[in-house]
Write a structure and sequence with these properties.
The protein is of the alpha+beta class. The chain has a single domain, classed as VC0802-like (2-Layer Sandwich), CATH 3.30.2130.10. Helix content is 34%, strand content 24%. The chain contains eight helices and nine strands. It has a seven-stranded antiparallel β-sheet with strand order 3-4-2-5-7-6-9. A hairpin with a 2-residue loop joins strand 3 and strand 4. Helix 4 packs antiparallel against helix 8. The protein is globular and about 45 Å long. The two termini are 25 Å apart.
Length: 254
């Protein structure tokens, strides 16, 4: 009965106006490899610092990176371009032996980013619901001040672009076909936005502080995306802002 109530509540929200879900656009970095790491019983953030330093010394760019820590250990998610995956793998392997228990998973991935989210939980809810309906399981998610990004299986990236046109509308293109036409030649531009190691002082586009926040740690099975979507929708109805969001694998199917 509780499950039926949740589904009915979501369907009622879907029946409403989608004007709040009209976005500026989305982009995809297609060919990447994502690494999910979990270092059990490790509370020292110096491990993450050592890892990032090693990647920096090898001049590897990270278009996606997340880090979290709790009483059980550290959670690190990082993505590199596919042609640099073996180089990154060797660095990770060289550091993993220092920890007694390390969970490491790799997957060929794409990074899907939608923008702007305006800190509205409804945007994250609609994205997760679209993933759930299309059997797309994100390996990790994170938001910046402008965009929500999800790491998804490379083979499902095209399917994901189609799925976005269900819950969202976009000001610059009406259909997936319009979006495809608009993307021709832009992959190179997206890569050039990433900071170059030729810069003596890498450019930072913005620095924002958000004070007096409550941080919640939520664990769920990978099969419960729709329930997570409903949770975010409830936050939206309560008038709350989604200032900070990261998700990562914690081993197994969580």
């Amino acid at each position: 009965m509780d499950r039926l109530r949740r589904e009915n509540a979501w369907d009622e929200a879907e029946a409403g106006s989608v004007s709040g879900r009209c976005l500026g656009g989305f982009k995809i970095l297609w060919d990447n490899v994502h690494f999910s790491l979990f270092c059990e019983d490790s509370q020292d953030p110096k491990h993450a610092l050592k890892l990032c330093s090693a990647l920096s010394e090898s001049k590897l760019n990270l278009p996606f990176f997340t880090f979290g820590i709790d009483e059980k250990g550290q959670y690190i998610g990082l993505t590199v371009e596919s042609e640099l995956a073996l180089k990154a793998q060797k660095i990770l392997d060289s550091l993993s032996w220092e920890k007694d228990k390390v969970y490491l998973a790799t997957s060929r991935s794409s990074i899907l980013s939608i923008f702007p989210h305006r800190s509205k939980p409804e945007i994250a809810a609609s994205l997760l619901d679209a993933f759930s309906k299309n059997n797309i399981q994100p390996a990790a998610m994170a938001n910046s001040s402008a965009a929500i990004s999800a790491v998804i299986d490379r083979h499902l990236a095209a399917k994901a672009t189609q799925a976005l046109f269900g819950p969202f509308c976009f000001s610059t293109y009406r259909t997936p076909e319009d979006w495809k036409l608009a993307q021709k030649g832009k992959e190179k531009i997206y890569k050039e936005i990433i900071a170059s190691y030729q810069e003596k002082r890498p450019k930072v586009y913005s620095l924002n502080w958000h004070l007096n926040l409550d941080l919640f740690d939520i664990r769920s099975l990978s099969t419960e995306l729709r329930n997570m979507a409903q949770l975010f929708m409830n936050l939206d109805r309560a008038g709350l802002k989604l200032t900070f969001l990261i998700s990562s694998a914690v081993g197994g199917n969580q």
